[in-house]
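Entry for NAP complex. Fields follow.
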Amino acid sequence: MSSRINTDSPIRIAVIGSGPAGFYAAGHLLKDGAGRQGAAGHSIEFEVDMIERLPTPWGLVRSGVAPDHPKIKSVTRIYEKTAAHPRFRFFGNVALGEHVSRAELLEHYHAIVYATGTPVDRPLGIPGEDLPGSHAATEFVGWYNGHPDHTDLEVDLRRAERAVVIGNGNVAIDVARMLVLAPSELAPTDTADHALEVLAESRVSEVVIVGRRGPAQAAFTNPELLELGELADADVIVDPEELDRALAVHDAGAAENITSRRNVEILRSYAERPPAGRAKRIVLRFLLSPVALEPGDDGHLGAVELARNELVTDADGNLRARATGEHETLPAGLVFRAIGYRGIPLPGVPFDGRRGVIPNERGRVLGLPTDSDSGGVPDAPGRERAETLPGDPGVERPESGRVRGEYAVGWIKRGPSGVIGTNKKDAQETVDAIFADASPDGEGLNVPGTPAGAAIERLLRERQPELVTYDGWASIDRHERSLGEAAGRPRVKLTRIEEMLRVAAGD
Ligand code: NAP
C-alpha cells in the first residue's frame, strides 16, 4: 500500500461509537497514519473525533463483559492510550441522528467510520415472548452492567426457582453464571448496585441452558464452559444419555474444530461428574427448541414449551436442527433469550435488514440495500431517531456500489461474532481501506466543505450543550473508582445519565 496521501491537509475522521471496534479503528488511524506523506511530500496528519451516544466510552467492555471478568475489562488501558493522543477528541452524550446528521458529518469530515455495534436482541419469534418474566439477554446484561438504557428494567428474581436461558453461546453462559454466582463471588465486582440488590434476594436455584443443536455445534468457548464447573454455589449437570444422543450424528466440521472438540470433552466430564450438593445448579440441555412461552395462572411466565430436535445434514454439509414432533414442557418463571444480537439502522446510512449490519466490502460501506429493508427491527430503548435534522437531505445514496468516505467496523460491519480482540484485526482491515482510498491511486475520501475541528465542535456544543469530553469522562471514571475503593470493588457505576452529567461537569 502506498504511504503517500492525495492531499496535503490533515485528514479528519469521525468514528461513531466508542466500543472496542471504534477504539481499535481510532488507534490504527492515529498510529499507522503517522508518517504518511501528502501530495507535496510533507507529512500528513490523521485527526480522529469519536462521537458516542453515552457520556461514557468503552461500549460492551463497560456494559457487556460480565462483571466477574475484570481481566477482560482491563483492555481499556489500550484504549486510554489512544484517547490520550493529541489528535483524538471524545464527544460523548452526542447521538448521530439526534444531535448531528450524517450529512453534517460529511460536511466536516473526510470519512465516517460507523462502529455502533449490534445493540438489540434477535427475537425468537414465538408466542409468549413478551410475557412478564421473559427477557432479552441484551437487556439483562445491560441491566446488571449498569447501562443507563436498562437501569429501570424490572427483573423479578424472587418469584422463580427455575430460569431458562435460550442459546448456546457465551452470552447464555454469562447470563446463567450471573444468576447463580455466590454473594462472595459478586461482592468484589462492579455489578450495578440495583442488580446486586435484586440478585441478593434471588430465589433462582436452577438455570437450564437450552441449545437447539448439540454440544459439538455449541458456540461456547472453552474457558467460559470450564468456568461453569468451578462455581462456588452451583453444580453443573449434563444428562449423559442426552449428550450421547446429541453426539450420535457425526459433525465433520466440529471434529476439525479444536474449540468444539474441547467443548465436547468438557461436557462429557460434566456428564460423568456427580453433583457436589451445592445449593444451585446449572443444567445444560441439548436438541431442544422453544416453540412457545406459556403464562402461569397470574399471567406471568409459567413454562417453556420445547420441541425436541434431531440433527440433519443440510445441502452445505452443516448439521441443523429438525423437529421430531415430540414436545417437552419445562416449568419456569424466567426466560432469558440469548440467541444473538442485531444492529439497528442509523438515519441515512445504508442497512442490510436481513443480516442486521451495514452492507460493506472489507469495511467500505456499500449503497444497497436501503433501511426500508430493516425488517422492523426496533430501536434500542432510549435511542431516538430524528431523521429531519437541518442539513440532512434524507436517504441519499447511489443505487449500488461504494458510498465514498463511509466505513464500518466491528459488529455493525460483520455481525455479532468473535471476542474483543477480533475487532483489532477487523479495524485494521477498515483502516487499511481508508489509507488505500486516500492514496493517490485510491478512490478518494469524502471532500468536506468545512474540515476545521473547531467548526464541528461548535456545532455539536450548540446542539448538545451537555456534551461530555474525555476530561468529563475522566471525572466520571475517578468518581466511580473512588466509590468502589471504599467498598473494595473496582468501581461503583453511575447508572443514570443525569448523574453522569453532573459528575462530568464537576458539580
Ligand atoms: P453466539 O455465539 O452467536 O450464539 C448464539 C446461540 O444462539 C447459538 O448457540 C445459536 O445456535 C443459538 N440460536 C440462534 N438462533 C436460535 C433460535 N432461533 N433458537 C434457539 N437457539 C438459537 O451469540 P452470543 O452468545 O450472543 O455471543 C455473541 C459473541 O460475543 C460471540 O462471538 C461470543 O463468543 C462473544 N462473547 C464472548 C464472551 C467471552 O469471551 N467471555 C462473552 C460473551 C459474548 P445455532 O448455532 O444453532 O445457530
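NOTE: The pocket of NAP is lined by residues 124, 166-172, 174, 211-213, 217-219, 221, 224, 289, 338-341, 416-419 (CB under 6 Å).
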